[in-house]
Write a structure and sequence with these properties.
389 residues; alpha/beta; Rossmann fold; Ubiquitin-like (UB roll); de novo design (two linked rop proteins); five-stranded mixed β-sheet; 17 helices; 43% helix; globular
Amino acid sequence: MRLLEGPEVGAGAESYADHVRRLGGVPDLGPGLIGTLQRSGLAGRGGAAFPTAVKWQAVAERSRGQAVVVVNGAEGEPRSQKDRLLMSARPHLVLDGAFIAARVLRARRVIVYIGERHQSARAAMLRAVAERPDPERGLVTFSAAPARYVAGAEAAAIHFLNEGVATPTTVPPYPFERGVGGAPTLVQNVETLAHVASLARPGGAASTLLLTLAGGVATAGVLEVEAGVTIGEAMRRAGGVTESPRAVLVGGYFGSWVEPERAWLLAIDHESLRRHGLGLGCGVIGLLPASRCPVCETAGIMRYLASESSAQCGPCFFGLRALADACTRISEGSSDGHDLQRLQRWAAEVAGRGSCRHPDGAVMFLASSLDVFAREFAHHTAHNLRRSA
């Protein structure tokens, strides 16, 4: 079962009645579903690709009827569109996964955590909950995730739901140990929950992934593909490229730039990409057209990531700002000639020293830029381009 099969996604949210006619109701499942998740190999689709069965088992062992399920639809990555599309078009598939989780983990609450800017998705999910039977409706509350890059991180979501501050906290304790209100908590991305709803049905499988294609591609937006399809094939299905690309960004702003010739051959699945030192992250595949300046693009993204710092530690607050400033000086032609060496040295000093993973993700992105665009950084001449955010 594909997540987006059924009515045309542009037609709006599928109603509960149509959803049940098409797929049937939520199966009555117990703890045995965790074994199904393990055999399927389902990994989280929010960015970290953590094994879903491991998370569920950790919460199940501690629940005692007090667990909380957080449906994570924060989607703070600027280029990503997959989660909001899924919530807007197939809200009941997401809710099926959430209620299955609540039943299997003996949870007492389901919190739907949606990015505050994703108004259409929030409206669709609110309507969908209102269509569900009374026992399910009574479990659900909604919370608006702040429009910040870090707000969708597990620890940031828990911090916000507990104290109204959407910044990551140090771990342990992990959410499965002490999360919302101190209870064992499952924080699960909406796409992952939709796949759970598929796996729970007879013959269901979690064999597809939702991608957001951005940049120089004929049909930008969300594309559902089978795991293992190459990036080149995904681009072909999206109508091909509109301009010869200089590089492909795999995994969004916490991802890596890859030379096109290499990128076209990469299989889109977590394990395969990991073997190449890459990650699918939030599922964004971005094409940088050859007409765009990679140094300016890198500087713009680094400024954005620095501005999204949690401001909780020096490597994140001062380190990312220094890296962004050095990139900007190179892009604007105001460098003293030593900024490239500074970038390489400072990136190594920032990596692994932050209170959360935000600086690590930014440094990984920057390292790939310095590698793939080494020639452009070394010989960059300032030009008159509007600064990107």
